[in-house]
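Q: How do we represent a protein-ligand complex in a form that can be generated token by token?
A: Start from the inputs.
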Amino acid sequence: MNQTLTGKNILLIISGGIAAYKSLDLIRRLKERGAGVRCVLTGGGAQFVTPLSVAALSEEAVFQDLFSLKDESEMGHIRLSREADLLVVAPASADLMAKMAAGLANDLASTVLLATDKPVLFAPAMNTVMWDHPATKRNYRILLDDGLHAVGPGQGDLACGEVGAGRMSEPLEIVAAAENIIAGQPTGQPVAAPLKGRRAIVTSGPTYEAIDPVRYLANRSSGKQGHAIAAALAGLGAEVVLVAGPNNQPDPSRVTIRNIESAAQMLAACEAALPADIAVCAAAVADWRVAGEAEQKMKKDGSGRPPALNLVENPDILATLSQMNGGRPSLVVGFAAETEKVVDHAQSKRTRKGCDWIVANDVGTGTRVMGGDENTVHLITAADVENWPKMPKDAVATTLAKRIADHFINHFGSE
Ligand code: CTP
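Then emit the structure tokens for the protein with cytidine-5'-triphosphate bound:
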């Protein structure tokens, strides 16, 4: 796992918004990476998450009031803002962004933000009309011009029932942005962009292969891994097209989504997204589709005999991209889900399909990888087999994205 946050102190400011519940997970993600996390909870924030949950997860006192004698005797607000290596505002409400842009200091959060001499990362979260309001846009621009770092917001279903931009970035996207800042990247957006100017195609999720208008063949892929990779590559500055089969994952921010159903549609969407420098095929593409999908719903014929489904092989997207004659992405990465002889099978899959790297994972019975949160993988290149420790799928994604960025820096220098 990335060690950048180990031993670092993060001051997390949680302002008011339904997205505050995600900040509880953010605390856990920061702490599991070895960071110390102190939290400031605004009055609005405390309407959504309790000080007790924040204190329990951060294992620190929670700071709430500017004029609290207790807080000030424990830790003055200046010290609070200066002892941190990084301030993270998540969620950053429209109200708090406006205060920050105006330089107000009328509560603990805004005072700490005005008093700090450390980098500040903010993750806007609000209703889409509020986000689109010229005042918010102005404040956002002012904050970036002032050298603050932003992550998100993303697109998707908002808690208010509307759909659009304004959704707070997922905790791991915020973690990746924090890691980039701590790693010493220059201020302003993008926070760190070793893949800036690079185009990436990522496939994710299952494919659905229609039998008739109401039935289909599918598999249990959740899309977690592919979506996390798309987010991680975008986090490093790549321009990402995510070609996704049906899934329930939130759309990652700053990624172009192409939703498809079948393998044939996935291939067409990938080809339409070319040219690209990077292709990562993380989708669990159905190997077969039904020959001659029925135009009408198939009916039982009363004989008691089920209909025969004739299957034909689907196009192999990874092999197609790997074996392109002109315009092949310069780095093509596949996944190999294996239940036995994981490395051996993956090595021969890499040569057979013609991709550059294979991320091999053990999906044998009992590993609970399919649909689960963790993955034990091996990265297989032409020269090497790296055994990565068991880690969450998001950490696999950030580690892989970092390896991809290093590959481009080593081969082509930084942009
Ligand atoms: N893949 C693809 N298109 C397909 C099948 C697979 O792009 N029609 C990609 C997957 O996204 C993954 C890799 O190929 O990156 C390996 O998938 P896997 O299912 O493990 O391999 P198979 O091709 O099904 O090989 P096998 O049946 O031998 O395991």
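The radius of gyration is 24 Å. The chain has 14 helices and 22 strands.
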